[in-house]
Design brief:
Layout: H1 5-14, H2 24-31, H3 36-48, E1 68-74, H4 81-89, E2 94-99, E3 111-117, H5 120-133, E4 141-145
Antiparallel strand pairs: 1-3, 1-4, 2-3
Helix pairs in contact: 2-3
Length: 181
């Protein structure tokens, strides 16, 4: 995709995230001195061109009291992984569910889900519920509780002033459930 001036300005502005105001697109359009409709059109063009694939919210869950957080990983048969991922994603306590490729000889797991909680006992109970409800007890899996908080940041779209460094993303980022196929 060839980037125009507005695309480059928009990419640069998005590195700071959307403004936390009632009408973030209008505020961003005002900042970039463009009509809101044109800004939304440029966002759509960036999306269609594969430069931006989604907007997401970064929640600093530990600051909100959620510090008993577990990543559950499963080795799900490839024929069932999409169905299982969708079922896991419907559970109210699952905050993220996505599929990744296995790493042969290193990491056998291909389905991941995150549960954020305020205490370990509740999270462990939720994991037991998930495993029982979806009949996953016999499936190889692990529960990895977070020990520390890693830095979270927004998207990095390369250098907006040099279109050669902005390339389409190869696959979508994880969402509620992401099936890479």
């Amino acid at each position: 995709m060839e980037l125009g001036t507005l695309h480059k300005k928009l990419i640069a502005a998005l590195k700071d995230g959307l403004p936390l105001v009632p009408e973030p697109y209008a505020a961003l359009a005002e900042k970039l001195d463009v009509e809101t409709g044109r800004l939304c059109q440029a966002l759509e063009e960036l999306h269609d061109g594969g430069i931006i694939n989604r907007f997401g919210l970064i929640v600093h869950h530990r600051a909100l009291g959620y510090d008993a957080n577990a990543m559950c990983v499963f080795d799900i048969d490839d024929a069932r992984v999409s169905e299982t991922g969708r079922a896991i994603a419907t559970l109210p306590y699952v905050t993220l569910c996505y599929q990744r490729d296995r790493v042969p000889g290193v990491w056998p797991y291909n389905l991941y889900c995150m549960i954020h909680g305020r205490d370990r006992l509740t999270v462990k109970s939720q994991i037991r519920h998930l495993v029982a409800r979806l009949d996953l007890a016999a499936i190889p899996h692990r529960v990895l509780f977070s020990r520390r908080c890693f830095s979270q940041c927004g998207g990095d779209y390369g250098q907006a002033d040099n279109p050669g460094t902005v390339t389409p993303l190869p696959t979508p980022m994880p969402g509620e459930y992401h099936d890479p196929a």
